[in-house]
Amino acid sequence: MESNYTVGLDIGSSKIVLLIGEQMANNMINIVGIGEVPAKGVDKGSVTDLDSVVTAIQNALTVAEEMANCKVSSVNLSVSGAHIESTNESGTWAIDDNAVSSYDIESVLHNAQSIKIRDDQRLLHVIPQQYSIDSQEGISNPLGLAGVKLKADVHLITCHNDFVKNLEKAVELCGLLIEQLTFSGVASSAAILSEDEKELGVCIVDIGSGTMDISVYIAGALRHSSVLAYAGNSVSNDIAITFSSPQSSAEKIKIKYGCLQRDSIDPDEMIELTSVGGRNARTLQRQMLVDVIEARYSELLELIKKELCKLSSGSGMEGLKQKLAAGIVITGGAAQMVGLVEVAEKVFDNMQVRIGKPENLQGLVDDVATPAYSTVLGLLRFKTTPFSKNDESPDVSGFSVIISRIRSRFSVIINRIKKEY
């Protein structure tokens, strides 16, 4: 594959998407290949049927490679699921030679991430929030600055090791290397949010089929990450149960006739819905369908609100509004429901709400410029920094820092000897 191409692979509950693109100089992403197939063997971010997932990835890969006229060897893979956990930590480090070096930054970040995590968990991301040097706070890039003591505040995201291993195995069985693992919420943020929104304070919610990824940015930094194991499929399940319809028919009817604006629908408008067990199709008012959909969406939004209120430190919605001045951004496939903004604003006590759609795209834009592709597009844009790599082998990372530390100390001693003689 040409080295300037990046490949994103999003293994979701409803679809598996493989995207080939390149980052342009003007911050545009040029899309050259798209492979999309219905997902089988995936539920809420975890693999339930390995063979089905492998077949689906291979099918998506073949389509994308033919479209882009290239051979894919590695991918950036998204990770989601209720096993995702996050915490905010800090670390300190004594600065060598009074000026912050790359080694100092690597060391302070290593100290910040050196917390004990459960044996079944893996460290996925170490994302810097801010740095401090002595009494100076709020530093975004300390490299080259003078001082004695360096402090780093970081956001750590962990995932369940076995869940991720199964995803990795499916990808590797397709002959692909995994270049980078990225939490879906972080990827969606990279595709959707502006720097101004992050500075003002914003919450982005990616509502997919199986999960809702929540990421909260305050003062330009990621402060909270979580995943709720309820999403668009819950709506389809409600339709199927309420009207005794097959799951596949419920999903189709949701997409074709679903909305959250009951008053905009003619009370006399009727729709036909397939019944289970070979029974005759039934006819019902479209408004009845909307009532079911609106009830579930309101419940999903209330779950998000409850999660966010944990961050308000007892100050309720008013305190939350101050922290999230840029409001709520909703993206993902289930964000395409008509009337969602109005219902969300009501649930969130009139906070600003917008639907997040990917921008700054060129090439095969018409196929991906919708909220449903936020995660996979973000995989093309988000890159871990040299100092915030996701590494499944913390001991190796620690050993690297120790070796780097010895080399740095030795270099300082040699320089002093040269000065003296």
From TrEMBL:
- Give the UniProt subcellular location, in the record's own words: Cell inner membrane
GO terms classed as biological process? FtsZ-dependent cytokinesis
What domain of life does the native source organism fall in?
Bacteria
What Gene Ontology cellular-component terms does the record carry? cell division site; cytoplasmic side of plasma membrane
Give the family, as the similarity comment puts it.
Belongs to the FtsA/MreB family.
Q: Which residues form a coiled coil?
A: none
Question: Which PANTHER family does the record associate with it?
Answer: CELL DIVISION PROTEIN FTSA (PTHR32432:SF4), CELL DIVISION PROTEIN FTSA-RELATED (PTHR32432)
Its predominant location is: membrane
Q: Which gene encodes it?
A: ftsA
Q: Where is the SHS2 domain?
A: 6-192
How it assembles, according to the record, is: Self-interacts. Interacts with FtsZ.
**Species for this entry:** Psychromonas ingrahamii (strain DSM 17664 / CCUG 51855 / 37)
Q: Which UniProt keywords apply?
A: Cell cycle, Cell division, Cell inner membrane, Cell membrane, Membrane
Annotated membrane topology is:
Peripheral membrane protein
Record's function text: Cell division protein that is involved in the assembly of the Z ring. May serve as a membrane anchor for the Z ring.
Q: What name does the UniProt record give this protein?
A: Cell division protein FtsA
UniProt cross-references to SUPFAM superfamilies, sorted A to Z: Actin-like ATPase domain
Question: Mind telling me which InterPro entries this protein's record contains?
Answer: ATPase_NBD (IPR043129), Cell_div_FtsA (IPR020823), FtsA/MreB (IPR050696), SHS2_FtsA (IPR003494)
